[in-house]
């Protein structure tokens, strides 16, 4: 079964217009799991009301600190989700796959928005990578770019040390950037455009998912009058490797296993070759 995950930094879900926009994209994409950043929900009843309004059977919320932050993960009854650790900046879960597929790990991540706190995001990524050896997928607003190519137009330049630290933290966890389809920017204002939202995964995830596909969705406006900044939801489609065509009657069990491993290796190689700045992402001493 393919698994669709929707991720969005909604920058406040309490406005009717934002809830309508979220319901629209849920209706279009029908994700089994939704991860939201910056919900700005500070009480359990409001979170439960949102879960019911969105039509999900289950949910895990991290309440906001005052009027900032707040996370939510929602999933339907078709997916078995076991919530592990959580904080103001992440929700970590284990996902039971279809029969015959192993358990894997999904983390919804929200990086610290202030530049002076960015090292705390990098350390959290490293700490999470040490927690669990399962195949791992991370989605969310990581609040950082891999290289200058993920920043368009004006605004101050990103320090190379800052971007290099992000690449090294991903490399520490053996996390591959999945790339994207659609427009590059997931956050923008009148001066600049940035790719802050992404999905990354470990190579072992390819043993479960063959061709994972990240789609940057429609562009939406957050606080259109006051601040003129914009954000875009992203969806990641995680197809089971069972969808790869391997004729069972033409190959022995050992040959099929060899073909699967060759397919996985090809996907990892393709992702490595197609990512800007990949050598420094994979090798922290580069």
Can you walk me through this structure?
The protein is an alpha+beta fold and 286 residues long. It is 27% helix and 28% strand. The chain is built from six helices and 17 strands. The protein has helices spanning 16-29, 44-54, 118-129, 160-172, 253-274, 278-282; strands at residues 3-9, 33-37, 58-62, 71-75, 80-87, 90-96, 104-110, 136-141, 151-153, 176-177, 187-188, 192-194, 197-201, 213-216, 220-222, 229-231, 234-238. A six-stranded mixed beta sheet has the order 3-4-2-1-17-14, with helices on one face. Helix 3 (118-129) packs parallel to helix 4. The protein is globular. Mean pLDDT is 78; it is low at 219-229 and 240-286.
> Beta-strand percentage?
25-35%
User: What's the β-strand tally?
Assistant: 17
Q: Can you list the strand order of the major beta sheet?
A: 3-4-2-1-17-14
The percentage helix is 25-40%
- The ordered H/E elements are EHEHEEEEEHEEHEEEEEEEEHH
**Biggest pleated-sheet summary:** 6 strands, mixed
What Rg, in angstroms, do the CA atoms define? Answer: 19 Å
Unreliable stretches covering 5 or more consecutive residues:
219-229, 240-286
Alpha-carbon distance between the termini?
39 Å
The number of helices is 6
In terms of quaternary structure, the protein is single chain
Structural class: alpha+beta
Q: Estimate the mean pLDDT confidence.
A: 78
The shape, in one word, is: globular
